[in-house]
Amino acid sequence: MKAVTHDRYGPPEVLRLSDVEQPVPKDDEVLVRVYATTATRSDCGLRSAEYFVSRFFTGIFRPKAARRVLGTEFAGEVESVGVGVTEFEPGERVFGIHSGSNAEYVNVRESGVIAEIPTGLSFLEAAAVADGALSAMSCLRQARVDSGKSVVVFGASGSIGVGGIQVAKHLGAHVTAVCNTKNVELMRSLGADEVIDYVNEDFTENGESYDVIFDAAGKTTFLHCRRSLKTDGIYITTDPGFMWQDLPFALVSKRARIGFVQYTKPDILKLRELLEAGDYRAVIDRTYQFADVAAAHRYVDTHQKTGNVVLIVREEGIAAPG
């Protein structure tokens, strides 16, 4: 099968489509025939190793053999299942999270982060929702967001940002989205109660205070935001580039937190419910053919993407709702 691989760290040009061995499902695994996957900010960070700490997991000098294939999100059809699998069967449309998903096939444990695609959702849409939504669920849970809380989503137009807006609204929060000028109307359409264009206004200077400030893109710091937090308010960030600036404060203050994302089966099932009810929708900026993965990474590297960038692995039926 074909998969996106990299044998060294560096710019998008280190990526290539390679022939790799097709996985065979174990007793508790589902083999997914991938139709669509994504190019995310995290994928680009792992490819370039711009955050040196990631090398301790992927390989100090070059990617380990087990980490050569990139990708996190997938959408496709069940090709086959292990003998112990009861939840899924061949032909079902599924989506979820699994390392190494930039490939024509991926093996996922039945108990892993995988769920049936809701009726009416395309493979393109299904591929573009899991990482952002589940990352937002995990972080907002850590920040104790619930009904009536006031939440700022900073970097609101990225994949995790659009997830943050929609998940926070579902939880009953009052949401202020902070984004650039071109995405103001999109933020409103996703349910944001207020939208601040950071090109023209610094939200920390508006005199307001908030229960939670969720930095969904690593574009600010606890020091910059602390005066805009309520007395018991929480600042939480997800981006490794700023985590290390915020880490000392997270160690000594209950108001600063590092958002260590955990993908879980209950969360992907909850996301499926939201999608089916029409309470969550995909935001797709651009699509690229699988062979054009380097171009997709170059675009993501500009830090200008809105929502997600999808890679089309198979053309047949890619955009057609099931």
Keywords:
322 residues
Description:
With 322 residues, the protein is α/β, with parallel strands linked by helices. Helices cover 27% and strands 26% of the residues. The chain is built from 10 helices and 15 strands. It has helices at residues 41-48, 55-58, 123-127, 130-142, 159-170, 184-189, 222-225, 240-252, 265-277, 293-300; strands at residues 2-5, 16-19, 29-39, 73-81, 93-97, 105-109, 114-116, 150-154, 174-179, 194-197, 210-215, 229-237, 256-258, 284-289, 308-312. Strands 3, 4, 5, 6, 7, 14 and 15 form a 7-stranded mixed sheet that branches. Strand 11, helix 7 (222-225) and strand 12 form a beta-alpha-beta unit. Helix 4 crosses helix 5.
User: How confident is the prediction overall: mean pLDDT?
Assistant: 92
Structural class: alpha/beta
Low-confidence stretches: none
In helices, the fraction of residues equals 25-40%
The amount of beta strand, in percent, is: 25-35%
Measure the end-to-end span: 25 Å
In DSSP terms (H or I, runs of 4 or more residues), the helix count works out at 10
Order of helices and strands: EEEHHEEEEHHEHEHEEHEHEHEHE
Described by the principal axes of the CA atoms, the overall outline is: globular
Profile the largest sheet: 7 strands, mixed
